[in-house]
Design a protein that fits this description.
single chain, 244 residues, alpha+beta, 3 domains, four-stranded mixed sheet, four-stranded antiparallel sheet, 23% helix, elongated
Length: 244
């Protein structure tokens, strides 16, 4: 390719170690959240505000029982509210906006936390504005002037696209082409010779197969061709030939 030259910096498009880091849940992107526990005349309210300024509220109507041990009760409320688990949020702060610390069951606090998170997620979805990009029609030259059936051009829009980018000759895709003679329909690293313990390169085998080898389905016959130098196998459709 004309764009390539000696000394050009090349970037890999797949890094196994980096993919492993991304798969680690510790490295997942979380949205910071501030939770505030409020006291109301008829119960309690939990409000949540995320790092984008979006907020939601949930009210739990319930009777009030003062905690005999306020410090322990406040620690319980804070601890349960911080349990954001597998949600997309992480807590930035938890505030208790109450005059007298109440005695509440952990199940009640957990329910308030779940409900306000559900509401906030709904608010985030409703407020999301999808960025729309205008379609830019270009005519940058395609690196090839001719496309065989391997280009998989199967409709008029694809044909128009390639012609706009300078392709002169376009063969139809395999599925719609009227093929003549032998046609390579697959090139694969999977090798029948190797599978049958007859690979002279990797298995150092002296086993000889009765070649050429063929595959058959209900409609076609395919001949197998081996390129041991590149370690590939080609599956070739034999048009108009029925092999028994």
């Amino acid at each position: 390719m004309d764009a390539l030259s000696v000394g050009l910096e090349v970037f890999r498009n797949h890094d196994h170690e980096f993919e492993k880091v991304l798969e680690n849940k510790v490295n997942s992107r979380k949205i910071e959240l501030e939770l505030t526990f409020h006291e109301l005349p008829n119960g309690f309210m939990l409000s949540a505000t995320d790092e984008d300024g979006l907020s939601a509220e949930y009210i739990e109507v319930t009777g009030k029982i003062l905690a005999e041990k306020p410090i322990v009760a406040s620690e319980l409320i804070t601890h349960q509210l911080e349990k954001l688990g597998d949600t997309r949020f992480s807590f930035r702060a938890v505030n208790l906006n109450v005059t007298n610390i109440p005695h509440l069951k952990a199940s009640v606090i957990n329910n308030m936390r779940r409900k306000v998170i559900e509401k906030l997620e709904s608010v985030r979805i409703q407020s999301f504005e999808k960025e729309v990009f205008a379609h830019l029609v270009s005519s940058f030259p395609f690196p090839q002037k001719q496309l065989t059936y391997l280009g998989n051009v199967s409709n008029k829009l694809a044909e128009i696209f390639y012609k706009r980018h300078g392709v002169d000759t376009i063969e139809p895709a395999f599925e719609i082409a009227k093929l003549k003679g032998s046609t390579t329909v697959m090139t694969t690293k999977h090798c029948i010779r190797y599978q049958m313990d007859a690979c002279a390169i990797h298995q150092k085998s002296t086993k000889k197969l009765n070649e050429p080898l063929f595959l058959q389905d209900n409609h076609h016959t395919y001949q197998l061709e081996f390129d041991c130098k590149q370690c590939i196998m080609k599956v070739i459709l034999l048009v108009g030939i029925k092999h028994n």
